[in-house]
């Protein structure tokens, strides 16, 4: 997978530089939903990524956020050309490019690039996780009350009964502190490098988690569904942690909130 990893890294950096150069220069914004936006920069980033990956590996399939899936062969690229579009559109510097490679249903490599801070997170299955070519590991926090956590809210949370607000309330009381920054790819990578101790979110898509969940696992963390069962990147809900507080997070997610 060395050739694939190198190409994914080169492509993510190229697309990321284009995004960074476009910061504050958006020409068009389109709403896919009430609060779900896509910009011309998303589209341009996607075209850059897919163009390079198709040229290098013409027999591989493509699953990307902004266009229909192209399924062929045993391998498939899973792409988020700009995770954190709302942040980007408001000049809030927390967004990334995410590229993963799936082979026979398994994620073999993951690349997440933050162009503002020039941070490149990478992982290859069974070979560890890295930030700018330096090996990373999850935190060693064991106590829930000392845990620094992150979460997010789906675009449709205002209309859904299961909207994460109860979970947010439970964790903000149980943990040291909680953040909601708006880019799941980076939230997961921050768990991988020990900045966050845990992260959970509902209603995500494969391109939100495919690359970053592998990075967490390769950094020594744990990634599951809310009930602790094995995570699949086509699942909607994800729970990631340093593994040491994972069971505690599962219990909190499973507990019913006390009504006053």
List the helices and strands and how they pair.
Layout: H1 2-21, E1 29-31, E2 37-39, H2 40-56, E3 61-64, E4 67-70, E5 75-83, H3 85-89, E6 96-103, E7 106-114, E8 119-124, E9 129-131, E10 134-135, E11 148-151, H4 165-174, E12 177-179, H5 184-192, E13 198-201, H6 206-218, E14 222-224, E15 238-241, H7 246-254
Parallel strand pairs: 3-5, 11-12, 11-13
Antiparallel strand pairs: 1-2, 3-4, 5-6, 6-7, 7-8, 8-9, 9-10, 13-15, 14-15
Helix pairs in contact: 1-2, 5-6
> Looking at the structure, what is the overall shape?
globular
State the CATH superfamily name of the largest domain. Fructose-1,6-Bisphosphatase, subunit A, domain 1
- Uncertain regions spanning at least 5 consecutive residues: none
Helical fraction: 25-40%
Strand content: 25-35%
Question: What is the residue-mean pLDDT, rounded to a whole number?
Answer: 91
Largest sheet: 8 strands, mixed
Q: In total, how many domains does the architecture comprise?
A: 2
Instruction: Give the C-level CATH assignment of the largest domain.
Output: Alpha Beta
CATH topology (level 3) name of the largest domain: Fructose-1,6-Bisphosphatase, Chain A, domain 1
Q: Classify the secondary structure makeup into a structural class.
A: alpha+beta
Helix count from the secondary structure assignment? 7
Record field, number of beta strands:
15
Secondary-structure element order, as H and E? HEEHEEEHEEEEEEHEHEHEEH
Strand order of the largest sheet: 4-3-5-6-7-8-9-10
What is the C-alpha radius of gyration, as a whole number of Å? Answer: 18 Å
The separation of the N and C termini measures 54 Å
